[in-house]
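Sequence in, structure out.
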Amino acid sequence: MNDTQVRPTTHQLDDRLEIHELLSRYYVAVDEHDADAWVALWTEEGVFDSGYLHLEGRAQLHQFMAGHDVQTRHLVTNIRTEVRGDRALAESYMLVVPRVGKPEVVATANCRSELLKVDGRWKLARHTYKPDPSFVPPSSPSG
């Protein structure tokens, strides 16, 4: 660390850790098909956007996740966070591998999560999922 870098405070480190844990819980809930746990991570007006799917509010989020039955493991990596008061930005990579069979990567994406602190806890306000060009979901027009 050089003289121009500032060490994060304990409070900032606590915020970053909570955000990392939130992202881990997010993907575990997806893999376990736990719509209630997944939706609990969002603000009331939360927005999910993947370019081919746009959801707004907990009702739409819950409806989507309740019908989202995947047989995969989602792995979140390279999480970078920036906390500014009660707002935060987290950027990460996401990899998907199958639960059974050969453990090969079936999809990758860049993710951008905008978070708000609500009642002392971090919640997702907007999560943008941008699949890499190697992955085109079956339900998309070009898939």
